[in-house]
């Protein structure tokens, strides 16, 4: 049997919700504090198909699946959340770095990121942008990558 796409699984999960649960889902979607946030006019008076499109356009398919499962659990629809994960082939439970995956970082990239962060902090700490010490520090970035 072919695997259901994430978008089809989202539509199916939202269609299985009662009217009250669907309203709770939309309310929680609007009330999310994490970015990217969904604007009220994208959700109000929308049907289940339109809400699915909003989820996918804002979060990508994998992100929409993760967000939908999270919201379903928050509103007490754990069974629907489990069904959604099953329909989508369990794609939301792929192991991430915290689940034992090893990530190799290029140390040059790490040094660059730390230097950019340091410069960002100093930029806001200095009263004037034309400070010679700050400009020398910016020009010294090229020394790390030579």
TrEMBL record:
It holds the Pfam family PYRIN. PROSITE patterns: DAPIN (PS50824). It comes from the Eukaryota. Gene3D superfamilies: Death Domain, Fas. Residues 1-90 form the Pyrin domain. InterPro entries: DAPIN, DEATH-like_dom_sf. This is Pyrin domain-containing protein.
């Amino acid at each position: 049997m072919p695997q259901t796409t994430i978008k089809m699984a989202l539509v199916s999960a939202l269609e299985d919700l009662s009217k009250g649960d669907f309203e709770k889902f939309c309310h929680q979607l609007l009330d999310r504090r994490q970015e990217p946030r969904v604007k009220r006019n994208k959700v109000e008076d929308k049907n289940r198909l339109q809400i699915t499109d909003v989820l996918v356009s804002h979060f990508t398919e994998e992100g929409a699946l993760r967000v939908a499962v999270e919201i379903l659990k928050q509103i007490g629809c754990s069974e629907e959340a489990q069904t959604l994960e099953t329909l989508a082939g369990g794609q939301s439970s792929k192991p991430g770095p915290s689940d034992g995956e090893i990530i190799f970082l290029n140390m040059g990239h790490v040094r660059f990121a730390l230097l950019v962060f340091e410069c960002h902090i100093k930029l806001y700490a200095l009263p004037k942008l034309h400070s010679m010490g700050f400009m020398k520090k910016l020009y010294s970035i090229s020394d790390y990558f030579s």
